[in-house]
């Protein structure tokens, strides 16, 4: 198995580049059991989650990752928790917003899907 | 079983009040398999984790929770992931720091222990 930090980097690079270029492509990363908490609102299942993400009211968005920390989340399967902090630039604005996001990734067929996803903007 | 948001609130209230009054008391919340990532540094096991937490170089600290989001982390056991964002006041300073912290809580004997703990300050 690849190093857990390598998996975290590869996953988050892919996730945010997909988010920032074609949000609908994120659907493949979720399953029916997947959960998203987005600014306190809860969604379950790939369709509901991607419907939420694709309906966010901005034209362009850019995630700039500052930190990513990964830990194995189980002693029995190769799942992992990744915590990301970073900056979000919306519609080319000059005041990036800080965010934090947690992913719980479950192995499946040589890859991973997102079981838990918790997103929060961090206000000063 | 209590509602997951109730568990998250009870746990984080207890965790931060213990952290802010007697850090050594946190040891009971971790096990030998527990992991802490603190500002990117990794620690494993209750002893190493609490040694890190009790050696942090401040006299007083106050955690002010802004948001807490909880999700079940498994379809088979009553574990949960809690993501917290908030403000940290160190030594009574006038400039609170933003933080985010993820806990992965595993049920044990009617209570929970911390399997994963990831802490990050969020810089603007």
From TrEMBL, chains A, B:
**One Pfam family per UniProt:** NTF2
Q: Where's the NTF2 domain?
A: 7-121
> Quick check: keyword Aminoacyl-tRNA synthetase in the entry?
no
> Per its UniProt record, what Gene3D superfamilies does this chain match?
3.10.450.50
- Keyword terms, alphabetized: Cytoplasm, Nucleus, Protein transport, Transport
- Reply yes or no: does the keyword NADP apply: no
The residue stretches assigned to a coiled coil in this entry are none
Record's GO cellular component, any one?
nuclear envelope
Tell me, in one coarse class, where this protein mainly resides.
Answer: cytoplasm
**Biological process terms in GO annotation:** mRNA transport; protein import into nucleus
* Protein location: Cytoplasm; Nucleus
What function does the entry list? Has a role in nuclear-cytoplasmic transport of proteins and mRNAs.
Can you say what this protein is called?
A: Nuclear transport factor 2
């Amino acid at each position: 198995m690849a190093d857990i930090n390598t998996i975290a980097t590869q996953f988050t690079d892919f996730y945010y580049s997909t988010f920032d270029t074609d949000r609908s492509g994120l659907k493949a990363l979720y399953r029916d059991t997947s959960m998203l908490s987005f600014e306190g609102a809860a969604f379950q299942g790939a369709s509901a989650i991607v419907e939420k993400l694709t309906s966010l009211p901005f034209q362009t968005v850019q995630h700039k990752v500052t930190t990513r920390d990964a830990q194995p989340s189980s002693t029995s399967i190769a799942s992992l928790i990744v915590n990301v902090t970073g900056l979000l630039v919306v519609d080319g604005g000059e005041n990036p917003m800080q965010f934090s996001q947690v992913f719980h990734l479950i192995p499946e067929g040589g890859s991973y899907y997102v079981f838990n996803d918790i997103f929060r903007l961090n206000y000063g």
